[in-house]
Amino acid sequence: MSLNVGNGIRRIATIGLVIGSIMDAVASPPIIEDREYRGRKIMCVRSGLMGFSRSCGASEGYAQVFVGTVLSVVETPNNEFEIELMPEEVFRGDRRIRVSAKTNQGRCLPELKIGDKWLFYLQNDEKSGNVLLAFGGPSAPVKESEEELVTLRRVSAMVRGGILKGSVSRQKRDEQGTWYVPIANHRIIAKRVPDGKEQTVSTDVKGRYEFSSLPAGEYELSANTTEGLWASSGTVMISSQSCTDVGFALRTDGRISGRVTTEAGEPARYALVAAVSSNGETTSGSADEQGNFEIRGLEPGSYRVGVDLGVSNKPLSPAYYPGVVEQDAATLIEIETGQSRTGIDFPIPSR
Asked: Hey, which residues does 102 pair with through a beta bridge?
């Protein structure tokens, strides 16, 4: 028995960029793929969750990572598949003769048939006790995983460090939408915490970079090395035999900064402040304990600035600069290329 699907991808909503304070993960709408299975349209859903970094090795998020052969594929009544696998090259997990697994959104996976050799990433489902091969993960046929296999074999041989790699692109936009262009010869800085020792690399012609062997530890990683361009920075933890992937999307470094307060004049501590462009794109940043905020990475254009999150667990009403509650009444703030607008101070009325 085999399974086969067609192609087609759509998003149910535009992903809003969150730029300013570093966040461990940015929630975005799930990604829905329209596919065809045995002449019928099916819907395949995968997470839209984004993070500052992701694993490109045998991460702890998977119970078993191995190259193996498909021994059997049996369709179940709930439109899933039970599969038997024979591990051959194990990167994570027990070395077993056979592994039994079930699929999650199995009809959405690429074709699976007896004798196929895949690079498998399998999860343990604590609720059901099953081993899962899930749609949306990195599992794929070996012929599509050669580059990833090279990385897995490299990190398996490391003793005291790991690989940190990724890509750098430049955000471009026109009336047709937004896309990203790889940036060559762009410098990336990895600064070790806490001693501040720096290592740098530059991107190749395809915008890719790699720190081939970083000692284990915590690093501050930044691509903000060209004046006028900006991307979110953050920290990554490198462990032995690990591979971490971080991508940077550079934007024009327009900025809006100011201070938000309560109606009583107290700092609006940790309020989420957003700049909404004329085309509806939202870029946001968190105020500090004194209510000061800075939103970076703004392209040229007109923006309304507002806040609608709580302060010290006290609910607030939506408010916009210069202290109004209706968006249409908000003052438009014009940003030219790379311009910094300061003094955008306003109060937030209490409910």
From this structure: 82, 132
